[in-house]
Write a structure and sequence with these properties.
InterPro entries: AAA+_ATPase, DNAC/IstB-like, IstB, IstB_ATP-bd, P-loop_NTPase. Keywords: ATP-binding, Nucleotide-binding. With about 260 residues, this protein is α/β, with parallel strands linked by helices. It folds into 2 domains: about 1-65; about 75-240, Rossmann fold. The protein has 12 helices and 5 strands. A 5-stranded parallel sheet has the order 2-3-4-1-5, with helices on both faces. The protein is elongated. It starts with a helix and ends with a helix. The relative contact order is 0.13.
């Protein structure tokens, strides 16, 4: 390819919003020459590479906006440490069929068993698949909604939790809520019902949610909408954090 044509293609690619093509056109043509590609094969190569670059850019942007505390995957989860947890159930969730169906997923169990890890891994998978995601703890969500309500901006702030395809609500049950706070949670759950997916983690059984939300009737209304279309997974094994802490103590004792 002549330098004149190469320059013209780079300029055109830039105008079309294809900066990667503008930067790599010479590499593409080299690969085409080496592979003796026909015109259609060359076009397929360029379009496939550009799509992959665009998807990766969208994925990284989605993660940046998601407020996820980390970007762990299911491959990093130690299922062997939780022998009572069936990996197939978690991997079924990772197919994202529940997200496709605008259903929910609930991960229940004591602190430290990896509920948040699994929730984040599912969110990362959803982001990779092109879904918008947003992560919040329940306490943070309630605090932000209360502040917005006091400032007369509740409707606008609700959009933060209603717009994403997948909303991850972490640590449900760690702090009891007042009834007015629980009503704000109900608004989010109710407005997302059959319109978007929720992934939540909780250290409380559903029978304890009346205590969490300070009102049995309101808790029942929340659960009614949440559980109508929901996959529930219980993780009741030992704590990862305690395991790591015990190992550190053992090392210190060995040194001593």
């Amino acid at each position: 390819m002549s330098e004149l044509v190469s320059t013209r293609i780079r300029n055109t690619a830039g105008k079309l919003g294809l900066p990667h093509l503008a930067e790599t056109i010479n590499e593409y043509t080299r690969r085409a020459d080496e592979g003796k590609m026909g015109y259609l094969d060359f076009l397929d190569l360029v379009l496939s590479e550009e799509l992959a670059v665009r998807d990766d850019r969208r994925f990284r942007q989605g993660l940046r906006l998601s407020r996820l505390p980390h970007h762990k995957t299911l491959d990093e989860y130690d299922f062997s440490f939780q022998p009572d947890l069936d990996p197939r159930k978690v991997k079924d969730l990772a197919t994202l069929s529940f997200v496709d169906g605008k259903s929910n997923a609930a991960l229940l169990g004591p602190p430290g068993v990896g509920k948040t890890h699994i929730a984040v891994a599912l969110a990362v998978a959803a982001c990779r698949a092109g879904y918008s995601i947003y992560f919040t703890s329940l306490d943070d969500m309630v605090r932000n909604l209360k502040a917005a309500e006091a400032a007369g901006r509740l409707t606008n702030k609700l959009g933060t939790y209603l717009r994403p395809s997948v909303l991850v609500v972490d640590e449900v049950g760690y702090q009891p809520l007042e009834r007015a706070e629980a009503n704000l949670v109900f608004q989010v759950i109710s407005k997302r019902y059959e319109k978007g997916s929720i992934i939540l983690t909780s250290n409380k059984t559903f029978s304890e949610w009346g205590q969490v939300f300070g009102d049995e009737v309101l808790a029942t209304a929340i659960l009614d909408r949440l559980l109508h279309h929901c996959e529930v997974i219980s993780v009741n094994g030992p704590s990862y954090r305690l395991k790591n802490r015990l190992k550190a103590i053992e090392r210190d004792n060995d040194v001593a």
